[in-house]
User: Fold these one by one.
Assistant:
Number 1:
Amino acid sequence: MNEKEILVFGYSGQVSTALREVLENARYVSRLECDFERPSDIHSILDSMRPRVVVNLVAYTAVDKAESDRQSAFAINGEAPREIAAWCKSNYCSLVHVSTDYVYSGNGEKAWLENDIADPINVYGESKLAGEVAVKSSDCHHIILRTSWVYSRTGNNFFKTMVRLGGEREELRIVDDQIGAPTYALDLARAIRQIVEHRDFLALNGIYNLANGGVTSWYGFAVEIFKLLKAAGKDLKVKNVIPVKSSEYTTPAKRPLNSRLSLEKISTDFQIGLRSWTSALEDCARKA
């Protein structure tokens, strides 16, 4: 696959920034160039660039704000992917679309399979599921990647929040009953490259879970972040990290308690197995 035949929606987000490191010659479209709440912008960009593969990394990710801003969340996460997928179907173009663990209900303790019933518990999850349904319904060639707890040294994410708060406060209370896999944006970007370059890319189609290996809680994630930052010589104020239940930390949007993802399918079909979340975090913390 010629990188110049790949069009990426997203330029400055966590994953798009990382993808620019591993797919340097792909064409990237920023939100300033294309307003996802205006379908005509999407078609204009696609018609002018005529890619063979589209990677959609643009998303409305303000989980709590989505509860009161349903229209924008559904426009960006649901309707825009529909427009992209329709163009891809009409122009024999492949689509790689990044989705989320939030499409699952979060019940139980088993790792979610791709064919488990999607039953989101907040507007953000509902809007992302709407995007998935639109992509699948278009019948274009597509790979939908459900990932979890994405972080990096750029953008807005839990890692950066902990770095900031760890330097400001001596005590932090972090939720300990939501379980999932922190996923390093750079590892996710590398996997996207492997997918589009895979010899069977055009023969494979559908939904795939993709995350770093292993699981933890947000509390466990925070504790590991502070341990690694201190080992790297980062000056932190935080001395006490207290685990709390989700019920003690009220937010406008409910969060799934179980975001464990089965990674067997992507390992079998694409031979992709990301390293452990602790190993990936060590790399990120070292560069923070």
Note: The longest helix spans residues 70-90.
Number 2:
Amino acid sequence: MYSIPTVTLNNGVTMPQLGFGVFQVPDEETSAAVASALRAGYRSIDTAAIYGNERGVGQALADSGIARDELFVTTKLWNADQGYDAALAAFDASLGKLGLDHVDLYLIHWPTPERDLYPDTWRALEKLYADGRARAIGVSNFQPAHLERLLGTATVVPAVNQIELHPGLQQTELRAFHAEHGIATEAWSPLAQGAVLKDDAITAIAASHGKSPAQVVLRWHLQTGNVVIPKSVTEARIRENLDVFGFELSAQELEALTALDRDLRTGPHPDTLN
């Protein structure tokens, strides 16, 4: 078992820096995948309403026998459920599927700027937070302009912004905004769906450490300060992705990975998804 480092969110809640994501995992496979992750030592599980697998996550958590206070569970509100009342109802539905009485982190999945509902949606998340049904609240895929608008009316600063982030898309301006406002940066698609793993710099560093390219990229995330949630359904890969604490990248190696930034998106741009 590994001792996974934590980050302290802006409300004092601690969150494991390395977790397990279940994006694109079919519900019927989710329970087994999450069970494998929990056996390996993961304690943070990230899902979303739109993934359609909250029920599978909940089943694995219930079957694990792990105490609730040792787990960190994140889910997300889908775009069609934005708005104050709709968000509260969607949260209830997610909680029911998960079989929990609270989540540790609840996120607005996308800003969907054309709908222009995220300020009202955020009020609903603030109520869930005030009621203790979400230990922390945050956003996902918000750009600086979205965050600026939200902060203009919010009474609670988002604890987390979960964004596409990997060596090919480092989001320097957005991460600086997070640092200025005390928002933790969480990376989805942390390996760029494999698109960066054959880069010469990464393969050379991996060879020098006797590690896989994926392990090198995950180590880069951890040393950069990002929260990271790799996904896999293969037990060997699930375990490999957790085996990133026995080596450290040098300053020169970190610089080599930083040099790979090239605006490489694997998902949609937040300004255009609605």
Note: Residues 80 and 99 are 22 Å apart (CA to CA).
